[in-house]
Amino acid sequence: MGEPSAKGLLTSSNSQPAAASFQDPSITSPVPYMTANIFTSESTYKFPVSGSDRHWVRLHFYPTTYNTLNSSNSFFDVTASGGITLLRNFSAYITAQALSQAYLIKEFSLNPSDDGFLSLTFTPSKNYQGSYAFVNGIEIVSMPNIYSQSAILVGSTDQTVDVGTFAFQTMFRVNVGGQYIPPTNDSGLSRTWYDDTPYIFGASIGVTSGAGDKARIEYPNDEAKLIAPDDVYKTARTMGPDSQINLNYNLTWVFQVDANFTYMVRLHMCETQVSKVNQRVFDIFVNNQTAQAAADVIGWASNKFVPIYKDYTTFVSDEAGDVMLWVALHPNQEMKPEFYDSILNGLEIFKLSNSDGNLAGPNPVPSQLMQEAEAGFNKGFQESPSKKAYIIGGAAGLEWPALGLVLR
């Protein structure tokens, strides 16, 4: 989609362009993070979009000083067409500090628009004096409906969830057993896939394997090519060659999430080592409940190098302490497979909107150790220390005077 006029997009008289006062070393390109739009009152962008497609919405934030405005004073809401709340009382400063990130990308998937327009409204919080809203970049990307099939509800024998009717937020997207995949190497949807290592629970991390550059992934149809890129399916994490060791542990990943939401967990699998049914059979657990018993990738895919994915949903309730979502694999013994092992190639976790259209969770709480370190550092320096950025989504944009914007 071509670049529309700026006047036709933004409806606000209380917005101003601003330049970032400092470029964190982790920011390798000035677009879109070194400029921002600042909003001191409710302001709305209105984008013309295809009324029949879902759209990725990626919001880019770099919390720093803009025109003498300190980002620690910025708290705001972001709502989208159809009454969907994306962010509520959001502080990019607190979130970046708690996650040890320099900049953030929030990625959402929204349902088709009824009127051919997608609106994003930024509203400064009324609970903080002098609060303002800001955004550095916006991406609107038309996407195929790759989330149309129903997902199994974990803990229920026959109930499914029609996830395609929900708006949702990408919480995690990892390339299991493989390396970081940038948006330019995705399968056409500009997604970012991260290394799964930080999320593995315990010391039993299994082993990683790769199919090699000459291996060819055999997609069952054209739409399947968009589900995930080749690099996800060519690499995997398994439990290892020792069946006795494998029977005594679970291959487990743990993710911190927001309480009181339903989550969809998408597992990507592709066999590149075994080629027969009942050679590798395993059970899949989500939050300590059986999501799938006797998973056999070859049984599902019918052949080696054919990728498949499975979707599961689970509700994560409010409990004391950190709220975690667990995904675990364990060899299935009942089927007496040739190898007592498990395999996973990729993993995505999405938060589904609740009954009132809300996707917003609370700002994360920085650890006490983090707060003490930040306080000690800031005694001698104006800017925060360089932080490793861990983000969801792409980082390209058309450079406007105050906003990086992509419409596709």
From TrEMBL:
Signal peptide: none annotated. GO terms for cellular component: membrane. It comes from the Eukaryota. Keywords: ATP-binding, Glycoprotein, Kinase, Membrane, Nucleotide-binding, Serine/threonine-protein kinase, Signal, Transferase, Transmembrane, Transmembrane helix. Residues 1-23 are annotated as: Disordered. Its main location: membrane. It is found in: Membrane. This is Malectin-like domain-containing protein. It comes from Asparagus officinalis (Garden asparagus). The lineage of its organism: Eukaryota, Viridiplantae, Streptophyta, Embryophyta, Tracheophyta.
